[in-house]
Design brief:
heterodimer, A: alpha/beta, Rossmann fold, Dimethylsulfoxide Reductase, domain 2, nine-stranded mixed sheet, B: alpha/beta, Barwin-like endoglucanases, 5 helices, 23% helix, globular
Chain lengths: 447, 140
């Protein structure tokens, strides 16, 4: 007889929304059904039908992968790191906080750069937030109080599919009993996205004109009169209407995505958005939040900040933390062909980076920890299979509003497969051992 | 003007789609990823200008290189002059590392030229093999 089990309150490990109301129906220890999740979450928890899972550590010998034990692979990885002069640790958006902590400790020991997903994503947002601060609140507060939701340069219907239904637009809240009937949604974008289609107001702006648009909106909010007919392709009346809508909200929130942070102006665009919200707080309660992509990119940012004092692109090359995104971010060190080895955890930078970065990944030895085959594992020198955080192992993740949530283990991983944390620890142990042996072997310096 | 001569200057922007998101889970090397990400969504007017039909192959060229993908009519039109590609190795083949001095790639609004082509779309594995040919490899 088949054994059926329902696991409730599962936390979805896909996007930064970290929905924690997922129900998983298990039959004989395999996932039968995933309830409440969006398409992305259900796919992540259940896996694609033809997902190619890694189950054995692999070492590349003469361009061919050879199966190995974790110890052998860890030794090979330690050797690569011992020889490297400019190694980089990168990834971490899709793993839990213990793995972050262990990797940072190890990166400091090795003398490496430690960087994670903001350097290809919300890095500009982080820079702007560091400069002028952020008026933030939790998603729970938005769900219960917000009557005006503005999305700029972000398309949650495709990137965070339950964001609107769970936190912002459709749910009934403590002070918003009628749900969406008591809320107004505005979408500002260059394309009429799926999100724009369900919004009350859609404002189409011209590409690369975000800073101009936000500055004009800010001026109107502060009581200035625009002397031009259109700004960034938006008629003056529409900007005035939006300013009034924002000033008259009881509790407003502005969400922004890479449509703001990745376009011309980068951190200056985000700066304009944060400043707009600061100005709006002279009239009403208004908050602002970046839409974070991977489920634990906010966690990685928190962990590196409490350890090193800096949020991303941290260099331990000199033995102490230094922060300079242009110099130490993944894209910087790889496109300038500086790095000579890389440790990649829970990320696929070969698939996700600009071509110049991909090319440099092909030049240097890579140590990769991933549950699945990816373009990055294909170019790797050593591959470690790992469990999927939040499905096959537990841990802590931070939601996009910086709320830490405990991930649940739903099922066992493939036999013998370790967690990211355990693998990093193993490599670090081997590294220490080899370093000690090398020191003993090295001839004594004569002074 | 012959079919071969037609080309159009656009701003290429990249972003997430549901299909792209689903293809991330263990199928990044398969045809599922190719199906989801080797595609470019164009404004119907722009497709008309290039005399493109749905699913025709197009060659997109930027400062970084060129790639062949399928053209599809955008559901998010009108946005003449803007071409959208889902995130992935195909789009990133065209993305410059960025020049803002903050180490962040220029994933949005990249100047690109689109032209119809009879060439085929490479598979993800073919693109990785292309990367393997890169010069200046470090021996392990």
């Amino acid at each position: 007889m088949s054994k059926k089990k329902i696991i409730s309150d599962v936390v979805c490990p896909f996007c930064g929304s970290l929905c924690d109301d997922i129900e998983v129906i298990m039959e004989n220890d395999t996932i039968k059904e995933v309830k409440n999740a969006c398409q992305l979450g259900a796919t992540k928890i259940r896996g694609n039908r033809n997902s190619k899972r890694l189950t054995k550590p692999l070492i590349k010998i003469k361009e061919e992968f050879v199966e190995a034990t974790y110890d052998e692979a860890a030794e090979q990885a330690a050797k690569i790191l011992l020889e490297a002069e400019f190694p980089i640790f990168y990834g971490f958006g899709s793993t839990e906080a213990n793995a972050h902590r262990e990797s940072i400790k190890f990166a400091e020991e090795v003398g490496a750069i430690w960087d994670h997903c903001p350097s290809v994503c919300h890095g500009p947002s982080v820079l702007a937030i560091q400069e002028i601060g952020i008026a933030g609140c939790t998603l729970g507060e938005i769900r219960n109080r917000s009557d005006l939701i503005v999305y700029i340069g972000t398309n949650p219907m495709e990137a965070h599919p339950r964001h609107m239904s769970r936190y912002t637009t459709f749910p009934r809240g403590f002070f918003r009993e009628k749900g969406f009937q008591e809320r107004t949604v505005v979408v500002i974008d260059i394309r009429k996205t799926e999100t724009a289609k369900v919004a009350n107001h859609y404002i189409q702006i011209q590409p690369n004109r975000d800073f101009e648009f936000l500055s004009a909106l800010r001026a109107v909010v502060r009581g200035q009169t625009l002397k031009v007919e259109t700004v960034a392709g938006v008629p003056r009346e529409k900007i005035e209407e939006l300013a009034e809508l924002m000033k008259n909200a009881k509790h407003g929130v502005l969400f922004f995505g890479l449509g703001l942070a990745s376009t011309k102006g980068n951190h200056r665009n985000v700066d304009a958005a944060l400043s707009l919200v600061r100005d709006l707080n002279d009239y009403t309660k208004f908050y602002v939040q970046p839409m974070r992509g991977h489920f634990n990119v906010t966690g990685a940012q928190n962990v590196i900040t409490w350890i090193s004092g800096y949020p991303f692109a941290v260099s331990y090359l000199k033995g102490y933390p230094q922060y300079n995104p242009g110099e130490f971010s993944l894209t910087g060190v790889m496109s300038r062909q500086e790095a000579d080895a890389a440790v990649i955890v829970a990320s696929d930078p070969v698939g996700n980076s600009p071509k110049q970065v991909m090319e440099h990944f092909a030049r240097i030895p890579l140590i990769v920890l991933d549950p699945y085959e990816t373009p990055t594992t294909q170019l790797a020198s050593v591959v470690f299979p790992v469990t999927i955080s939040g499905v096959e192992s537990d841990g802590t993740a931070y939601r996009m509003d910086h709320v830490p949530i405990r991930l649940r283990k739903i099922k066992k991983g493939p036999k013998g497969v370790l967690t990211d944390y355990a693998v990093l620890k193993k490599i670090a142990q081997k590294y220490r051992k080899l370093k000690k042996e090398n020191r003993k072997k090295a001839p004594k310096k004569e002074w | 003007m012959t079919h071969k001569d037609k080309s159009l200057k656009v701003l290429l922007t990249t972003g997430r789609t549901i299909e792209q998101g689903k293809s991330l889970v263990g199928t990044k090397l398969t045809t599922k990823a190719k199906q989801a990400t080797a595609v470019c969504f164009l404004d119907p007017e722009d497709m008309e200008k290039l005399q493109l039909e749905e699913e025709d192959n197009i060659k997109i060229t930027t400062s970084e290189g060129m790639i062949v993908v399928r053209a599809k009519k955008s559901n998010e039109a009108p946005h003449p002059g803007i071409a959208f590609m889902p995130l992935g190795i195909y789009a990133n083949w065209l993305i410059p590392p960025g020049d803002a001095g903050i180490g962040v790639p220029q994933y949005k609004e990249v100047e690109a030229t689109i032209a119809p082509t009879k060439e085929g779309i490479p598979s993800v594995v073919q693109l990785i093999n292309e990367l393997r040919k890169v010069k200046g490899k470090k021996d392990v």
